[in-house]
Structures are given as C-alpha cells and as structure tokens.
Design a protein that fits this description.
Helix content: 55-70%
Family: Belongs to the CobD/CbiB family.
Organism: Noviherbaspirillum denitrificans
Oligomer: single chain
Number of strands: 2
Structural class: mainly alpha
Order of helices and strands: HHHHHHHHHHHHEEH
Pathway: Cofactor biosynthesis; adenosylcobalamin biosynthesis
Distance between the termini: 14 Å
Protein name: Cobalamin biosynthesis protein CobD
Shape: globular
Number of helices: 13
GO biological process, one term: cobalamin biosynthetic process
Radius of gyration: 20 Å
Strand order of the largest sheet: 1-2
Largest sheet: 2 strands, antiparallel
Length: about 325
C-alpha cells in the first residue's frame, strides 16, 4: 500500500500540482501563527509545549481517519493515504522556477533568471553571474527535493504512515516559521522546533545523500560528504549538498556565502569559521549543471521508488 500510495500521489501531482498558496497550507500557517501567539511567553519550554500541541492537533485526527477507513475498506484507507501524500509532497512546487531559470539562462536572459531566482529563494540576486545563478538554483533544487519529496517518502514508509508524512512536513515548517521571522530570530521559543526537526530529518537526510551518491559519482560524493559537509552550519544541508555536488562533479557553496546566509528554500547557511584552504572537488556550476541536477533527482527518485517497491513486496510476502 505504501508504494501504491506514493506512486498514485506522484502521478496526481504531475497532472494537478498543488499551488503553494493552497487552502490547506494556509490553514497550517494560521495554526502555527496562532500557537506561537498563544504559547510564546519568552521561554523555550513554551515552544516545546506549542510544538507538541500542534502535532497532536494534526496527527491524532489523521490517525483516527486512517483507522476508520481501514476498518471500512482497504481501498478507502488507500485513498486516504494517497490524499495525505498528495498534500504533503511538493515535487512540483518549485520545478516551474527551476525550469524557467534554465530556459532563461539557455536563451542568455540573465536578468530574468536573476529575477526568478530572487522570487524563488527570497534572497538578493543582484550582481550574480551565470555561475552564481546556476549554483544557487542547483543548491535550492537539491534541498527542496529532499524536504518536499524524499523526507516525506521516508516518514510515510514508517508504521504510522500518513501521520509520519504530516509530522515531517509540519516539523520542517515550524522550524522555519518559529525561527526565521524578525521578531522570532534568536528567540528561545523556536529552539525546540529546530532541535526536533534536526532529529526527525537525521536519517532521511543521510538516505537522500546516499541515494545521490549511488546514482551519481559515488566516490566523489562520499569524499565530499566526509571532508566538507562540516563547513555548513546546518549539518543536514551540508551532507545533502556535498553528496549531491560530488555526485555531479560540481563544487557547491562559495566564498560569498561564507559570511552570510544562503537562504535557499529553507535557510541553509555556511559556517565561515570552519572554512579552510582546501577546495572541494568538482567544477564551478554552469547552465549545464541544471540539466545534470534534473537527471540526478529523477534517478534518485527512481531508486527510492524501487526500494519502496521491494519493501512492499517483502511486507506482502512476509
């Protein structure tokens, strides 16, 4: 059922992708804002309580509906799973930006590519050349793919199924929503949300990196992962980008980000204090790197689907 749920959800999303401003996502944002306003009294414990309450509000009904559907009919339970995966996946949320940037660069329209990249990543792209635009687009695509697709796959495959997919996506959003806004930056309230997502994403991030290594240049991916991932303040981001860049023979991250935030889609940063004289392996990103990224992501997606299919067979035969 896990494989079929993900397969049908992917097909539906290709045919009818959810808009980034859809009502369901808007409701989650309103819930997060309401919880922050209700619980935030300046203590980390308040953030922990708000996080737990938010998860209970979302996960308990999800599990109850799944249990009722399973009692009535396995096909109804499958339909519920497909709906939840469809709502939590975001494969097409960013692909139009990536494709449009690629087309703009191929036609030599750097101004349009910079504008699209700024809209996508919400960072200042003024003065970026083709290499910078290509690199940041590749980095953003890799992180977005992990957090919108592969991380969801992993947690949906866990025993609690649809609740796991919601747990992953909501915890990722709370880690951003309760830390990135100006009035919450460096506040104790969001610290638990950050730590919770770190542990929730610990295994999926490494599985994504392994998938990139397996379907790309394995040796360079593992070498970059082991020797350069520590340069990033966000450990998971460093692992994914080093493995992904190494798999494609690209050098991701640059001196420009060493002292400033690399916002990406989810506020990844490079730690300037850990940079050394050694240069990561690979070439500077070019327009061709965007096509290489598309190939890497699709190969990794096929690998994940194959593993899920084998897992489903094993469960069925067992």
């Amino acid at each position: 059922m896990t494989f079929l749920s993900i397969l049908f959800a992917l097909l539906f999303e290709q045919l009818k992708p959810l808009r980034a401003d859809n009502p369901m996502y808007a409701a989650i944002k309103q819930l997060a804002a309401r919880m922050e306003a209700s619980f935030n009294a300046g203590q980390e414990s308040h953030g922990r309580l708000a996080w737990i309450v938010t998860m209970l509000v979302l996960l308990v009904p999800t599990l109850l509906v799944y249990w009722l559907c399973a009692k009535i009919s396995p096909f109804l339970a499958l339909a519920w799973n497909i709906l939840i995966v469809y709502l939590t996946l975001g494969f097409r949320h960013y692909s139009h930006y990536f494709t449009s940037i690629q087309l703009a660069l191929n036609s030599g329209d750097e101004a349009t590519a910079r504008s699209l990249l700024a809209e996508w990543t919400r960072q200042d792209t003024t003065g970026m050349n083709v290499s910078d635009i290509s690199r940041v687009a590749v980095e953003t695509a890799l992180i977005s793919t992990h957090r919108n697709v592969f991380g969801v796959f992993f947690w949906f495959a866990m025993p609690f199924g649809p609740a796991g997919a919601i747990l992953y996506r909501v915890s990722e959003y709370l880690a951003r929503a309760w830390n990135e806004p100006e009035h919450l930056r460096n506040e104790p309230f969001g610290r638990f949300a950050t730590r919770a997502f770190y542990w929730i994403d610990w295994v999926p991030a490494r599985l994504t990196a392994i998938a990139f290594a397996v379907v790309g240049n394995f040796e360079d991916a593992i070498y970059a992962w082991r020797n350069f991932a520590h340069r990033w303040q966000d450990e998971a981001i460093g692992i994914i980008l080093c493995a992904g860049g190494g798999a494609m023979g690209l050098r991701l991250g640059s001196a420009r980000e060493n002292a400033a935030d690399l916002r990406l889609a989810d506020a990844a940063t490079v730690d300037a204090g850990t940079m050394d004289a050694e240069t990561p392996p690979g070439e500077e990103a070019t327009v061709r790197a965007l096509q290489s990224t598309v190939g890497l992501v699709w190969r990794a997606l096929l690998l994940w689907m194959l593993l899920l299919l084998l897992l489903s067979f094993a469960v069925w035969l067992g």
